[in-house]
Request: fold
Amino acid sequence: MVISLGVYEIKRMNFYCKLRSFFFVLMICYVAGLFSFDIGERVGFMDVDLLGKLEDQGGSSFFRQFLIIMFFFLSVWMKNLFYGSRNVLFDLLSFLKDNYSLIFVLLLFLISSVWSEHPVYTVKRTFVQILLALSLCFFVKSYTCVDEFIADLRVSSLVILFTNILVFVFSNSSSVDLSGALVGVHTTKNTAGMIFSVFFGLYIYLIYGGKDKRILNLFGAVAYGFMLIATLSKTAIVCAYFFIVLGFYSNYLKGSILVLLGLIFCQWLLVFLTILLRDDASNLLFGVFLSGVDLTGRIDIWSRLFSVVVDNFWFGVGYGAFWSIGEVQSVLESKFGFFNFLNSAHNGYLDILITNGFVGLLFLFFFLFHMASYVIKKGGFFSMYIFGVSLVYNFTESSFFRDLHFLWIIFLLVYFLVRKGEVRILR
Reply:
């Protein structure tokens, strides 16, 4: 009787493990854009439903909010099944204590509703971030060991890989943009490049860190490495290969993370001093230091946004109260019509500076330095790779505190795994 009960329990838990893996793969595929792919020739940027994308990507989509709420309840259920704790209050207090640097940032977001011109958006989007963080934290707790997480992430990468291959083979015009860059089933070449760089790093970790040289892992590394280059996304390519090279010398990788984070902090401190000391900070920063550099229109975007930064320097305009609110931003009016439909500054640090000011930027750095201390002490290749890629990626794109952004989801998952004390992800 005891043996039969034991066998039944093992079968039951195996079933729940498979169910958890299914939901995890579903989540990763969704945030990677597999379910929003439009089969059809890419004929031009302005033919896209830009206002619809603004609402969806900005956190205003009811469907996305519903998914996050459902994922929260699912993660609580999974945590109770595998982790054992059923006291919700205790779990919340534990979350607050273990992740205080993240909580400080989220509290600032919530408080910013006081001076926000769109307080409803600020409160709603802050609660979406809080719910997302709680959901991912609880979901991570359902993993009894980090190998299970890596296995599920690997399955997700294979699903995304073979979907991209099938679309490329049977609908080539849908997977390549007008410039000839590989986009696959993803929105833009930069989005595709960022996703491919994450999975490229995963397979390099599996082969060299995990010593797992199965054919499928070798194929994944080669395929994602090739697709990454084919996206022509300079940021993603530089990030991936730079940190992989450093990853072979783990001590250099640890040192480079600290140096990089320190340099980024000093850079934005210099921006702070420049704005305080000069009225024409935009001309100085972009007209002198970056003269002749365009970065695919980003310099024009950033220079226009600096008037918003100067006017709301200390505390910003309020979290979620600038981008994707269904209004045309007059500050970006230009001959390029698509500027009015942007949903980010194409710079994660500048986005925080706009929405939560220099105080918000300091809180962000506090969170990043706090995470870096755990990654460096307990970490190794994969966690530092994701951390380093995120730091550099946010120079030309935005992922910090963007609800269902693929890199932000992976970043938070790795953060909670490191905080949980799972060291094997790191070796």
Summary: Residues 2-35+48-260+359-420 form one domain. Residues 36 and 377 are 39 Å apart (CA to CA). Residues 1-5, 42-59, 422-427 have pLDDT under 50 and may be disordered.
